[in-house]
Amino acid sequence: MTYTSYGNGPKPLILGSLPRHRPSDWIEVRPNIWATPPVEYAVGKQILDLRKSHWQHHQEAGAGVQLTAEDLPEGRITQLACTQSGQAPNHIQVWGPELPPLKQGCLALTFRARSSIPFRIDDLSVRMGSAPWTRFGGAGSMDRDIGPEWNEFQLVLQIQHSAQAGKLHFNLGGILPENALFEFQPLSLNVATPTVTDPPTVDVGNIIFDHGRQCGWKKWTIEDLKQPYDYYYDGATWRVYLYSAGHPAQLHSSVELALRRHVVDQSSCHHVVYDGLAIKYGAAHGFGGGNTHHLVIRDCDLAYIGGGHQFTREDGHPVRFGNAIEFWGAAHDHLIEGCRIWEVYDAALTNQGRDPSSIQVNITYRNNLILNSEYSFEYWNHPESAITKNIRFVNNTCINAGTVWSHAQRPDPNGSHLMLYSNTAATEGVEIKHNIFYQCTDWGSRTSSGWETLPDQDYNLWYSDTGVMSNWFGTRLKRFDEYQAETGLDTHSLFADPLFIDPGQGDFRPAAESPARQVRPDGGPVGVESLFTPG
Question: What are the residues whose beta carbons fall under 8 Å from the beta carbon of 127, sequence distance 6 or more?
Answer without folding.
Answer: 133, 134, 135, 136, 166, 167, 169
